[in-house]
Design goal:
With about 375 residues, the protein is of the alpha/beta class. It has 2 domains: about 260 residues, Alpha-Beta Barrel (TIM Barrel), CATH 3.20.20.105; about 90 residues, no CATH class. Helix content is about 40%, strand content about 20%. It has 15 helices and 17 strands. The strands form 4 sheets. A 9-stranded parallel beta sheet has the order 4-15-14-13-12-11-7-6-5.
């Protein structure tokens, strides 16, 4: 029996969009689902029960950062990441590969893995498929991601092909390194850059491994929005219908709706939390920037249609005051609002799949990354 199971409940006859449930040892998540990012064992500024109150049923932890601070063995000794951070629901951890590759000049890729200079203490370290699995299993995650190479979008096709083949070899080493498959599932990551023939070949290769789930990787790393949409729309229907499909690192509202229409079930992104920490709040009227002088005496909530605790109690004027005086509370209130907005977006997406109105929702969300007029 699989550690993580996917139940397909409904398939939209007019698109690839679908409704389902992802079931792990720590509970179920309705899909399509958005996973808040808890990089170092917390969703920044939020208590775990506050994150759950937004409607989030699954969060993401970061293997690279947790293996450095506080260390995966320490987390294991504390009872695992769920206990350590007080999150009783599903956790997915990335493989650590993307963070290593983003170090660029600090990392060297070999067949064995990646040798890099730690951004924390400058020490030389190695991250291999085996070590990535060791760390993720020690953390006690529900869903582990296979260690992969994520080439920049501007690399030539022959480079992307070699990288893709290495990712396959690393996946096989990840499979061989597993020690707790009954507790931690393993998702593979489809690479292939912008090239449809490579994407098809890699999807077919990964499907042969009969994995617990499949991710579309290597997008939202510098390519155009049109190319990202094309790659996702092409790749996702190639993946098994009875397994969860995960689009890594994509999080703008328009992109989420388009990806759901392509058949994606799971998302993660720092967009809601990172924007909150810069004072940029998503609303159903567009973006609002809390520090703007126009809100100095504005008694209205950030979004009069929002039911989050921030909008229920606090005015735009108050949030602007907190921001200008550098009060810590502003980061909690803005983060809470943005996470609430994204979970409400996912609820509307799921309703749109059921009702056949995703095209209408897409038209509604396209303007939401521009500034609100009032």
């Amino acid at each position: 029996m699989r550690t993580v199971r996917y139940e397909l409940h409904y398939q939209d006859p007019n698109s690839q969009a679908r409704l389902g449930r992802l079931i792990s040892p720590h509970g179920a998540a309705e899909t399509p689902a958005f996973m808040p990012v808890g990089t170092g064992g917390s969703v920044k500024a939020m208590l775990p029960d506050e994150v759950a109150a937004t409607g989030a049923q699954i969060i993401l932890g970061n293997t690279f950062h947790l293996m450095h601070r506080p260390g995966h063995q320490l987390v294991a000794g504390q009872g695992g990441l769920h206990t350590f951070m007080g999150w009783d629901h599903t956790i997915l951890t990335d493989s650590g590969g993307f963070q290593v590759f983003s170090l660029a000049e600090l990392a060297k890729i070999t067949e064995e893995g990646v040798r890099f200079k730690s951004p924390y203490d400058g020490s030389r370290q190695d991250l291999t498929p085996e070590r990535s699995i060791e760390v993720q299993e020690a953390l006690g995650t529900d869903i582990a991601m296979a260690f992969d190479e994520c080439p920049p979008s501007d690399k030539p096709k022959d480079y992307v092909a070699r990288s893709m083949d290495r990712t396959t070899r690393w996946l096989d080493r990840c499979l061989a390194a597993r020690r707790n498959p009954e507790r931690t599932s393993l998702f593979g990551i489809v690479q292939g850059g912008l090239h449809e023939d490579l994407r098809r070949a890699h999807a077919e290769t990964l499907i042969e491994r009969d994995l617990d789930g499949y991710a579309v990787g290597g997008v939202a790393i510098g390519e155009s929005k049109e190319n990202m949409a094309r790659v996702v729309s092409f790749t996702t229907p190639l993946l098994p219908v009875d397994r969860p499909r995960y689009l890594m690192g994509v999080g703008l509202p328009e992109d989420l709706v388009r990806a759901v229409m392509a058949g994606i079930d799971m998302f993660d992104c720092v967009v809601p939390t990172r924007n909150a920490r810069t004072g940029r709040l998503f609303t159903w009227q567009g973006l609002r920037v809390v520090k703007h002088a126009r809100y100095k005496e504005d008694r209205r909530p950030i979004d009069e249609t929002c039911g989050c605790p921030t909008c229920a109690r606090f005015s735009r004027a108050y949030l602007r005051h907190l921001w200008l005086t550098n009060e810590i509370l502003v980061h909690r209130l803005t983060t809470m609002h943005n996470l609430w907005f994204f979970q409400e977006l996912m609820r509307r997406i799921r309703a749109g799949v059921r009702e056949g109105t995703l095209q209408n929702l897409l038209a509604e969300v396209i303007p939401l990354t521009t500034l609100a007029e009032d």
